[in-house]
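[Backbone geometry]
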Amino acid sequence: MRTRESKSPLPILFAGADVRARDITLLSSISLSIASGPPTALIGPNGAGKTTFLKAAMGLIATSGGGITWGGNARPPPAGLAIVFQRPVMLRRSCAGNVRYALAAAGVPTRERERRTTELLSLVGLESLATRPARRLSGGEQQRLALARALARDPTVLFLDEPTASLDPGATKAIEEIVRAVSQRGVKVVMATHDLGEARRLAGEIVLLHQGIVIESGPASAFFSEPATDAGKRFIAGELLT
């Protein structure tokens, strides 16, 4: 991966941001800064607003009130951000073909694509499956390929929406190892997860969302050892937030 450019999208600053769809409030008065560093984990019950938060931070949906800035700019940059959704769509191509397509879309010169394809498939542990049709991969393998495609954009920030949902322990471990490797390369990872164990293992920062509101945010170590809110304590204990 190339060195981070000076025009970084970080920090991503939510300033009283609201997101509404028709008469439904999906995010309410979010004020939060996403800065460089270890992964940030978004946690909370289903319907808390985690996916909406990721889409807003990616610039895929507009705010209805307040605002979001990327490195001080009012619009997200054309490069530097990438997202992997919970159920990625595989192109009718081989694993390598999927990655080459992503590299071409990212503007990588033709002469560099084979080298980058090999590099990215190796990073996600799919180099031995380069010629296999992507749609014949297992669920965990498809998620790893989706990560490789996202990384073809050479992002500064990588958003992940429940990357290990419905995966078995072995596939989950493989995804978590990739997240660690990517983070160690300087990519800021922001991930939604339903798995508190995963959040403990990976996150440097926790954001607890409930009903579109940030209930609590801060260092993961502090959150898991002594949450600052009653909702945080109940969520860690496995109680339902209503």
Remarks:
- DSSP finds eight helices and nine strands in the chain.
